[in-house]
Amino acid sequence: METAPVVDLETLRRNCANCSLRQLCLPAGIVASDVERLDRVVKRRKPVARGEHLFRVGSGAARIYVAREGSFKTVACSADGEQQVIGFHLPGELIGLDALGHGQHRCDAIALENARVCEVPLEELHHVAAQVPGLQRQLLRVIGRSMGRDQDHLEMMSRRQANDRVMLFLHSLSQRFETLGQDGSAFALPMTREDIGSYLGLVIETVSRSFTKLQDDGVIAVRGRQVRLLQQRQIADAVHGHALH
Amino acid sequence: METAPVVDLETLRRNCANCSLRQLCLPAGIVASDVERLDRVVKRRKPVARGEHLFRVGSGAARIYVAREGSFKTVACSADGEQQVIGFHLPGELIGLDALGHGQHRCDAIALENARVCEVPLEELHHVAAQVPGLQRQLLRVIGRSMGRDQDHLEMMSRRQANDRVMLFLHSLSQRFETLGQDGSAFALPMTREDIGSYLGLVIETVSRSFTKLQDDGVIAVRGRQVRLLQQRQIADAVHGHALH
DNA sequence: CGGGAAATTGAGTACGTTCAACGTTAGTGG
DNA sequence: CCACTAACGTTGAACGTACTCAATTTCCCG
């Protein structure tokens, strides 16, 4: 138990109105009084440790989550136990939308680092959204952005050359870090090479070789999980299909 | 121009309450009086001819569409003009969600056959959804199903073997036809081999060879676009990862 | 019936996978 | 604080599958 003043500070620091992700999250574009109503249905969950599951395949979809600190991966499991990483979720990005369709999660969500999430009960969100017109729109916008990232993923998978896939991947991450107000040209990968390989449909060795190749070509600098994009122009060109050969 | 009685029949046949797709579409689970309110904002569009665009990259996202008769493909265009089929849309399935995120369509939508769509202005849908709680939920369910199909697509792309991709593709189509109340074990592909190849990340020759191989193995029977699934068990096994070797 | 697109088939090549060995990093306990 | 260990990552050589290029056949629509 804590004394009253401390609780207040904690509350203040933690609610939507004061969240650094506010612009990216559900409250964006909603007037202060309505943010308060939204805030009341958002549960702050205790931290999720690295490697811990946020939810699992088959569990009900009573809530959606927003990564608040730390990033997550979602992993689809075939019946035979083969796994595939289908998404990475940086702070401000929604997790758990996969269950909207049939009420059951189709994938596992696992924390890539020690993380923290906001938890939004769907039923209560519906109630608030019905009363706050802007929230409904914003919910669809956020869902739409999530679908856009899925489409980006698909575009990566459709590239024939492993190098192109990796460049697209780095470009996508770069943009998302910049959206978070961080440096998009130098960042730490929160995931392993194995995760990247699974996400891109490549084996780990190929990912490793691609990183090495891109470094040799002077396009990026890699050291472990630390990455710097040296020739953003070249990467952007590859993204737009003007291949380098 | 038509005489009054004919118009009435047309109207009756065309509105949501009498649509054969009702169970799959936005009205599902909404009481009759509310269906009427939804119905009032749904515009029936004049038929879309085979090969015609429903919308194009960059156009605003004022509306979403539901395929009513005939199917569609959505095609993403890289800046260099390279195209990739990112989705097929059978009757009852939503088209145009790709613009929810940023208000602009990221792909072209093209009719694969002479088709007909329902057109739903987003702004008006928001209004009705705010008043009809069930509609909001149903909209999210339909969106969720659409995301589920995207995830299925991704799972196809992640398969290493071309045969597996094609089998997953046929399985997915089969299920969707059955949802429509049609025969899931024998159907006509609405799209070309080229479309299939683009969708699966394979060249057209590989798609052709896979069809031939699957036919030689007795798994399917193909003749042009007419397909029959002979060993659904084997296909289901492949889908679940128990490869055939 | 003719023309053009769609689909099939064949041979050679390129790229990523597989299998295997080695290096490196980070987290743990003595 | 350092040694130890296991997970993570890199590099190399041989192989296999899908791609490329090219020729031919089938199908569909006017």
Explain the overall architecture:
Chains A, B: Keywords: Activator, Allosteric enzyme, c-di-GMP, DNA-binding, Repressor, Transcription, Transcription regulation, Virulence. Chains A, B: It comes from Tahibacter aquaticus. Chains A, B: Homodimer. The structure is a homodimer of 245-residue chains. Chain A has 245 residues and is of the alpha+beta class. The first copy, chain A, has 2 domains: 16-152; 159-241. In chain A, 42% of the residues lie in helices and 20% in strands. In chain A, the strands form 3 sheets. Chain A has a 4-stranded antiparallel sheet. The N and C termini of chain A lie far apart (63 Å). Chain A binds a DNA duplex (30 and 30 nucleotides) through α7.
Order of helices and strands of chain A: HHEEEEEEEEHHHEHHEEH
Global Rg of chain A: 19 Å
Main beta sheet of chain A: 4 strands, antiparallel
Gross morphology of chain A = globular
Most extensive contact: A-B, 42 and 42 residues
State the oligomer.
Answer: homodimer
Task: Output the structural class of chain A.
Answer: alpha+beta
Low-confidence stretches of chain A: none
What is the helical fraction of chain A, as a range of percent?
40-55%
| Count of strand segments of chain A | 11
* Number of helices, counting only DSSP H or I runs of 4 residues or more of chain A: 8
* Count of folded domains of chain A: 2
Spatially, the strands of the biggest sheet of chain A line up as: 1-8-3-6
Subcellular location (chains A, B): Cytoplasm
Domain Cyclic nucleotide-binding (chains A, B): 51-106
InterPro entries (chains A, B): cNMP-bd_dom (IPR000595), cNMP-bd_dom_sf (IPR018490), Env_Response_Regulators (IPR050397), HTH_CRP (IPR012318), RmlC-like_jellyroll (IPR014710), WH-like_DNA-bd_sf (IPR036388), WH_DNA-bd_sf (IPR036390)
GO cellular component, one term (chains A, B): cytosol
